[in-house]
Amino acid sequence: MALVSQEPILFDGSISYNIKYGCDDWVTDKDVEEAASQANIHDFILTTEKGYNTLCGARGVALSGGQKQRIAIARALIRKPKILILDEATSALDAATERDIQDTLHKISQNISVIIIAHRLSTVQRANKIFVLSDKKIVQAGSHKKLMQEVDGVYYNLVNKQILHEKEDDDEENDDENNNKND
Question: For the ABC transporter domain, which residue ranges apply (predicted)?
Answer without folding.
Answer: 3-91
